[in-house]
Structure prediction request, 603 residues.
Amino acid sequence: MPVGSKKWWKTLGKQYQLLIMSIPFVCLLVLFSYGPLWGWIVAFQKYYPGRGIFGSEFIGFDNFTRLFKDERFYLTLRNTLVMSIMSLITGFVGAIGLALLLNEVRTRLFKRTIQTVTYIPHFVSMVVIANIVLTFLSPDEGAVNQFLLWLGITDKPIYFMGEGSLYWIINTLVGLWKELGWSTIIYLAVLAGLNQETYEAADVDGAGRFQKMLHISLPGLLPTALMLFMLSLGSLINTGYEMQMLLGNPLNMDHSEVLDLYALNRTLGAGQYGLGVALSIFKSFVSLILVFTANYFVRKGGHARLF
Amino acid sequence: MTRNRNIGDMAFTVLNTTFLVLLGAVTLYPFLNLLAISFNDPLDSIKGQITLWPNIFTINNYKIVFQNDALYSAVVMSVLRTVVGTSLSVICTSMLAYTLSRKEFLLRKPVNLILVISMYVNGGLIPGYLLIKSLGLTNSFWVYIIPGLVGVFNVIIVRSYFDSLPEGLMESARIDGANDFQILFRIVLPVSMPVIATITLFIAVGHWNSWFDNYLFNTRENLNVLQYELMKILTQSTAQVTADASGYVDPDALRVTTPQSIRATMTIIATVPILLVYPFLQKYFIKGMTVGSMKE
Prediction:
């Protein structure tokens, strides 16, 4: 049945209920995911909110020139990439490690309990997480400082949130703590699907549990791990900004400010909308390049493509 | 040989169990500690001796939070947003997923294509902000609901579940004269509870935990949600600590409660509803997560 023919339209008419159930939501999706692209025009304008896109003056690539000349841009780009890479690596190693260890637990109730407990931080809001971090790292009565004092590692409380150099480490550890349990789900599913005969054969050969974990379970996880790793390379430049916003303060700002926060400060704070939008465009292009590069390498590696 | 192996395996089991118990403790302790502080006398908490159990038990902290008009209204707004937003989202997501699982739907392919592409299209933070501003969605309850009404990831999870249902189920209903709405709501949804439970949990948690849309778009105080109020208290006290590293405590506030106790109490209020729900849905969402990610 050719598209657009009389019969096609007639059949479509009969499917009006399916249209009612899909078209409004497709429109909504188009509006909110493609709609912001319309706003990209602002990057080429001297934009004033009062005048809107139609009333603002075009200034060519000035916003991009200003962006690439701004030292703060390079500083926040560095913070974004460093924190992304740190979270990516620790997240992967942590998730695979924990999945392997959970997989060795024979008591089902114990395994389920540990899983349920380690999922908690994933479901909790970033505001609550930030609250916990600030409470526990506080120089006054924070549990971490008390513990360090008790151990004698330090003789006076450390003001963790005031040390810029510590921020990246804190950010990485908090992210790891929040998502570690949750990120094991997919690996545990893969482990459950591995061929049991291989394990039995290893038993006959006299392999211990640690050896089986190292030589059967770990290699079994690697294809999935590699695929997920490539997938997340595409979002290297899109590290979250909620944690950095909540834990950031004037003292650690040079290490905590990421690109999105820089854009927010420049637009909401200083009214430089063009600069903020130019940054969004820059980020979109970088992540597009990253996604295609990752896809190329995955394909070259002989694994399924991402899209 | 076997003996050595058994000793090695036992050592491994002991080490593994110890490590996992420690990990569980490190995850759980902060929440239990804040729970204890929220039920402890504020002045006593300042001494910093509370670990897992309140020293001087009181429910005053909770009374103070719920007697404060702004905080009470924020709790109500969070509940309202979660209930309205989640029910609308679940209904709309199921409808869209249903049309994509109907093979005879003429627009199935183009709709599917638009969905998949939109997963890779990202206009960015500031353009998104400008869009919502220009749509006039600011200072409105609906800015919490409409922009995220249907999420592509959830549509994919639900559709792959619908696809796995036997085709005869829908066919026989159609022969009996049921229309698409009846098929979806009376036949398909009742047998799809595992996946519906999964997305309901994901969407509800997302709504309950949101504060950034509140921060960006709503300045009217009666629209503030709980997480945003908690965020305000948090940044205020950070600002105080930054101003004076020794920590500043308002003497007036000291008579009733302390920032520390209020923060702990609000954290517990913001966390407990989630903790009450998700363990019961665990086996569903694990399945939903796995199916959804494999499909991608």
In short: The radius of gyration of chain A is 25 Å. Chain A touches chain B through 99 residues (CB under 8 Å).
